[in-house]
Design brief:
single chain; five-stranded parallel beta sheet; 5 helices; 121 residues; Ribosomal Protein L15, Chain: K, domain 2; alpha/beta
């Protein structure tokens, strides 16, 4: 018997279906990979600190976090970060460094081909 998983928040279910439809139209497999990660239980979602974003990125990078961005650390680069959630301190640190905070839905609309998107987990 197959166990069906339902998400607590309707936004997550809508996001997963959008991510599954986008690769069909644009041939971008990055979205299918993110959809597969988001189908897992919520307690398995990534939690990435600002310090990790600073360590593994360069100026102008587009970062995708399939989970939550936390505010521990210092950010010195100007990056665009897309995630499901941001802590208040993380959002403040990213905008103070002239970066951009956005949802994954916004990133899919801006970049449906998934070009130059780096996944941090």
């Amino acid at each position: 018997m197959t166990k069906t998983t339902t998400k607590k928040y309707p936004r997550y279910s809508a996001l997963i279906s959008t991510l599954k439809e986008t690769p069909r139209a644009y041939g971008a497999n990055v979205w299918r990979d993110i959809a597969k990660r988001l189908e897992a239980p919520c307690n398995n979602y990534a939690e990435v600190n600002i310090s990790k974003i600073n360590r593994y990125t360069q100026d102008g990078d587009i970062i995708l976090v399939p989970g939550k961005v936390l505010g521990s650390g210092v950010l010195t680069q100007k990056v665009s970060v897309a995630a499901i959630q941001f802590s208040e301190s993380a959002e403040e640190k990213i905008t103070d460094a002239d970066g951009i905070c956005m949802t994954i839905e916004e990133l899919v609309k801006q970049n449906p081909e998934g070009r130059k998107v780096r996944i941090l987990r």
